[in-house]
Amino acid sequence: MSTQGEEAAASNEAATGAAPEPVDFWVAFKRAHEIVRALVIADTAEAANLSEPDLTILVNLVKAGGALRQSELAASLGWDRTRISHQLTRMSERGLVTRERTRGVIVTLTDTGRAAITAAHPGLDAAVRRHFTDKLSAQEIETLTSVFSRL
Q: Are 93 and 57 in contact (CB under 8 A)?
C-alpha cells in the first residue's frame, strides 16, 4: 500500500543510511499505527462482539491478573478519567467488568469478561501476527519493543 514516493524515500534512506527527518518519521509511524490498528480491530473486534476500547481494557485487566485500580488502568492506557469512566460504565452494563469503591475504584474482570477475552484472544493474536509481527524480523520486534517501552 505504499506510494512510489514512499518507496523511493525508503530506497534512498537504505542507500544513503540517512535517517528520515523527524516529521517524516512521525508521519510514517502514525500511518503504520493507523493501518495496523484498523486491520487488527477489523479482524478481531467485530468477530468477538467487542469494541476496540473493550478489547484494550480486557487485555490490560488480564495482564494485571484480573483487577486494577481505575486510575492505574486509565494511566496505563493514556486515557483521561472521563473516557475511562464512560467506557467502564458501558462494559459494566454488559457484564464484562465490575467496579467497587474501596480507597479508589477497583475494576475487576467478570467471568463474562474473562470468557469474552479468552474467546477473542486467538483471533487477536492471529491478527497481530498477520498484520504486524509477521512482517518484522525478531531483531526488529526486539528493537521496537525496547523503543516503545521507553516512550
A: no
For residue 7, how many other CB atoms are within 10 A of its CB?
10
pLDDT in tens, 10-65: 544 555 678 879 999 999 999 999 999 999 998 888 778 899 999 999 999 999 99
Q: In a 10 Å sphere around its CB, with 0-12 CB exposed, 13-18 middle and 19+ buried, how is residue 9 labelled?
A: middle
Say how far apart CA 84 and CA 107 lie, in whole Å. Answer: 11
- 8 Å CB contact between 82 and 133: no
pTM (2 d.p.):
0.76
Specify the amino acid at residue 128: V
Residue at grid coordinates 493514556: 78
12 by Cβ neighbours in 10 Å (0-12 / 13-18 / 19+) ranks as: exposed
